Amino acid sequence: MAAVETAQLHAAYLRLSSRFKAAWTFHQVAAAVYRDTLGLAFPPFSFQRLFERIREAGSPLPGYDHATTLAALDATLRELEAIFRALFALDERVSPSILRRFFEERKSPDQTIVHQLIRFYLEAGGMDDQHRDKLDYLFTRMGAELVDSRAEYRQRDLLDLRNDIFSLVATLPAASATHDEVVPVIRALRAMRDEIAAARTFSELSGRQLLQRSRMLKHRLGPLYFHADVLLSIIELNIVARNRCAELFGREVEQVVRDAGNLLDNEQAIVRSFGESNPQLMLEMARFREAKKEFDDSRAASNLKHGGLARLKSSLAGVLSQLDRTLGSDTAEEELMEALILQVENSDRISRQFGDDPLLHRHLLWIASLLDTIGPSLSAERIAGSTAARGLRMETWEVAAYQKLYGMTLRDPEEGDDLLVLLVTAAALRMKIDKEATTIASVPAGTAVDSALFSAAKASLDRAKSLDARFAALLQDPAFYDTPRMLRQLYRSRFRLLRGFSGLWLIYDQRLGSMSITLH
């Protein structure tokens, strides 16, 4: 047999063998997906008979001529093409998310399987959005390796990965793209990578639709998607997106779990206080409990998706919205204060942070209970401006100080416990002072004021002088000289306390007549 004929037969054999491996691998994976994920029967295919024919064609017996052997190979290839088309039709039921779930349940699949699946999709001609998404996942799976110590992925050795990619895409039209065509695409992919890496919260990631925009960018690349250097940048982008998404999603899940736990801890108090007066609140609580169960079940099955998290957050927001409406009067605020304090009366978390303070313990509990119920995941700005927190009359930085004391948000280097404790304590004392001033002023002229109320007011005035001295000492600290924002906050909290002190002192002095209290 001439050398040309031998080379021709060898090329036909390799082509047939390669397509057989791709079809066989896809058949194995698809059958498992149909059985384990879709719960459907997968039709049988005659791979064994094809394998025997391919093996025979690869080792022709003596006496076989070139034309007969080549015809046998062509006939086998046509039969394999029919199987290819049938398998590709069955692939319609395997969505990108189902394929992803299949592999996620198998932590470290053989790279050969991934390689052959990519070859199957490329040779089957799947270029619509669904197949592009599957290829995107598989290329990333091929290019990523898990770093167990950090529970994140990194890109494989660049040279080995490029060789693997090139072996798959070398014959595609994109391989001949010019430098001027490829460079702008790589720059756009890297810009998207950097934008995703810079996202600070999962809400930002989803709110700015960074993942959707990334997907759209890849779809718009057309054939250039399959250029080897472009694919390397795509894999890098996908690994960064996967790591960042997992990190931010995990943080948000932890925060929502804490928020939901706080609400459940106070559920009985809320129901007892407002169940009869606000039926809609009870409906929102029922919706919340249902979403929480769905969330917990999905989390236990390691199948928690963003939709489940979003539903739980939405149900939490619904409860808090109804609480905002319910807390429309001072009476309601007092009722909730009493109810919530009962739930945390035995907790020592306030005493650990603020010490044994009989004068302000009750008001510190009120701050802690209400801020925990509103939800630590909200920003200090949103909490301070919300209807539910209006009874606290706290400044934004005072709410933030409470969050920082309990590790809900990060603190700046100069924000020590003494500063944060002072800000929250001053807010609690203002609440007490405002209440006492209002109560004493409401007693009609000529009517005796309860002596216990006078004693409580006197203790508040004395504490105000003590806290003012602490403010004065902090304001002399050189650490705050270069931070005008913090100086302004300290002065504002101090002056608000002084204003409350002055109002209570004037009322107190007017009623007692002979008592003189001055602020040093």
Q: Could you explain the architecture of this structure?
A:
By secondary structure, the chain is an all-alpha fold. Among the domains are: about 1-125, no CATH class; about 370-380 and about 395-520, no CATH class. Helices cover about 75% and strands about 0% of the residues. The chain is built from 22 helices and two strands. The chain has helices at about 5-40, 45-60, 65-90, 95-105, 110-125, 130-145, 160-170, 180-195, 200-205, 210-220, 230-265, 265-275, 280-300, 305-325, 330-345, 350-355, 360-375, 380-385, 395-405, 415-440, 450-475, 485-510; strands at about 145, 150-155. Helix 1 (about 5-40) packs parallel to helix 3 and helix 4 runs parallel beside helix 6. The radius of gyration is 35 Å and the shape is elongated. Residues about 330-335, about 335-345 and about 515-520 have low confidence and may be disordered.
- What is the radius of gyration? 35 Å
* Main sheet attributes: strand count, strand direction, barrel closure: 2 strands, antiparallel
What is the overall silhouette? elongated
Cα end-to-end separation: 112 Å
Please report the number of helical segments.
Answer: 22
Q: Would you tell me the structural class of the helices and strands? A: mainly alpha
Number of strands: 2
How big a fraction of the residues is strand? under 5%
Strand arrangement, major sheet: 1-2
